[in-house]
Write a structure and sequence with these properties.
about 260 residues, 7-stranded mixed sheet, 4-stranded antiparallel sheet, 4 helices
């Protein structure tokens, strides 16, 4: 015979396991609990289509991953890293600044034109391109005197910019364009502001001001989903947004009643 104290222990163990199983079954779906507005660095109230990189993948649209530091948020667009300055969900506008130019660095290790993945982002109104020219010869014409600024420094040496050195020019130019000098390389950086060149004498301020883009993916359902008690997310299998509710996933909102609010 099995001793009584052994039976008591076995019964208690089975009871604990049953209670744990019932508790798990009664819990809300993990996406419903996780897919809520969150804070990322110094940006508050972040929601769909963005998601925190490394967290529950269903909580945001692929292509909108944020990396959250202690005091800042960053995002990678077309392999280039940007610091997130603001997220305006009401107007679907993201304000970003290039990390490699953040510390007033006009001589980055790589000269990379700013480009967007047009499947996910587009330039917001008011964005213009600032072009920087490196390793240039002296001006041979004054044709661009009103649109070009000469930087009287020679700071880009062999350790940067693939060995390019020499005068640096920058300004607002039409596309396509020709220049009255010969340069070793150029780099295009979007900025916000007026076409008046005098505004761009403070390159550090311009770079830190960043520029604005709008996100392409439709997130209009998210407000209704949150109001109904759900969490905004994305169904990777169906490739469409979804509203996670206590009793499962729905296309736009949680149903009324016990399962909803």
């Amino acid at each position: 015979m099995i001793p009584t104290h052994h039976l008591t222990f076995l019964f208690t163990l089975i009871l604990v396991l049953v209670v744990d199983v019932l508790r798990c079954l009664s819990n809300d779906d993990p996406p419903y609990l996780s897919c809520r507005p969150f804070n990322c660095g110094d940006i508050t109230g972040v929601q769909y289509p963005f998601r925190e990189k490394g967290n529950l993948n269903d909580c945001g649209h692929p292509g909108y991953d944020l990396e959250c530091g202690e005091d800042n948020a960053t995002i990678v667009i077309n392999s280039e890293r940007y610091r997130v300055l603001n997220i305006d969900h009401g107007h679907r506008v993201l304000k970003v600044a290039r990390v490699d130019l953040w510390d007033i660095n006009i001589c980055p290790q790589k000269l990379v034109n700013t480009t967007l993945d047009l499947n996910f982002f587009g330039y917001a109104p008011g964005t213009i391109n600032l072009t920087l020219f490196y390793g240039c010869s002296l001006l041979s014409s004054s044709a661009y005197i009103n649109t070009i600024i000469f930087l009287s420094q020679d700071s880009c040496r062999a350790s940067t910019n693939n060995g390019l050195s020499g005068p640096i020019f920058y300004g607002l130019l039409p596309n396509p364009f020709t220049t009255p000098w010969i340069c070793g390389a150029s780099m295009v950086v979007p900025v916000i502001g007026s076409s008046e060149v005098k505004y761009y004498y403070d390159l550090g301020g311009v770079f830190k001001q960043g520029f604005e883009v709008h996100w392409i993916v439709n997130d209009s359902f998210c407000g209704e989903c949150l109001d109904s008690g759900g969490g905004c997310g994305y169904n990777s299998t169906l490739e469409q947004p979804t509203c996670f509710c206590p009793d499962g996933a729905y296309p736009t909102t949680c149903p009324p009643g016990p399962s909803g609010m």
